[in-house]
Amino acid sequence: MSPSGPVVDPADAAGSPRPGEPVFLAVGKLRRPHGVTGEMLMEVLTDFPERIKPRMTLYTEPEHRPLVLRSVRPHNAGLLVAFDGYHTPEQAGELRNQVLVVPASSRPKLPEGEYYHHQLIGLQVRTAAGQALGQVVEILTTGANDVLVVRGASGPEILIPLVEAFVPEIRLEQGELTVRLIPGMLPGEES
Questions:
Q1: Phi first, then psi: what are they for 92, rounded to 5°?
Q2: What integer is the mean pLDDT of 40-50?
Q3: Beta-bridge partners for 160
Q4: Residue range 45-72: mean pLDDT, rounded
Q5: Tens of pLDDT along 100-134?
Q6: pLDDT confidence of 3, banded at 50, 70, 90?
Q7: Nearest-angstrom CA–CA distance, 103 and 106
Q8: Could you tell me if 112 and 13 are in contact, meaning their C-beta atoms sit under 8 angstroms apart?
Q9: What is the predicted pLDDT for the residue at 57?
């Protein structure tokens, strides 16, 4: 959501993970050794690849084995990375296809009014009048704006654009968000 998104309480800003949030976030996937010095080609899975720097500790998924980065450099659409203790292509090859994660607590804070998708999944959705609609089960990324997929106890899913006009308030600490609907948005309603 853009900085001009819904107004939220600053206490709701990104920080320590809440119950139900992931403890680790994926930042990359190791593909194959590159060269003779133990470098690996890493597919980038984060919006913040500039934060991946030498001496940083990344963890393998799912066992969370720590790997300390020896070097990092851009390569095509990914990164070339090398880790302490892995100095040959054979040693580096042992890490092939490993997903690398960082603690969620190390994620960068976003500007006020912006959220990570995983923070919104599972939030209860209510209208401004207090009508419960269900919970956010998915977020669709489109060219114009993201779209919340809301599923209630029964009936079809409701699609709600994730813009301030339709989502005026997000309260992470309370686990809910308020939506403003227009006629025809609810299943069975005529526009």
A1: -60, -35
A2: 91
A3: 148
A4: 92
A5: 999 877 777 778 878 878 789 999 999 988 889 99
A6: very low
A7: 6
A8: yes
A9: 95
Taking the whole predicted model, whether its pTM rises above 0.85 is answered as no
How many whole angstroms separate alpha carbon 22 and alpha carbon 25?
7
Q: Which tokens hold the place of 120?
A: 């919104």
Report the alpha-carbon distance of residue 180 to residue 160 in Å, rounded.
Answer: 9
Q: Which residue has the higher pLDDT, 51 or 96?
A: 96
Domains of the chain: 24-106 (2.40.30.60), 115-179 (2.30.30.240)
Q: Nearest 5°: CA angle at 16, between 122 and 141?
A: 45
The structure tokens listed for 34 are 């590159």
State the SS3 of the chain. CCCCCCECCHHHCCCCCCCCCCCEEEEEEEEEEECCCCEEEEEECCCCHHHCCCCCEEEECCCCCEEEEEEEEEECCEEEEEECCCCCHHHHHCCCCCEEEEEHHHCCCCCCCCCCHHHHCCCEEEECCCCEEEEEEEEECCCCCCEEEEECCCCCCEEEECCCCCCCEEECCCCEEEECCCCCCCCCCCC
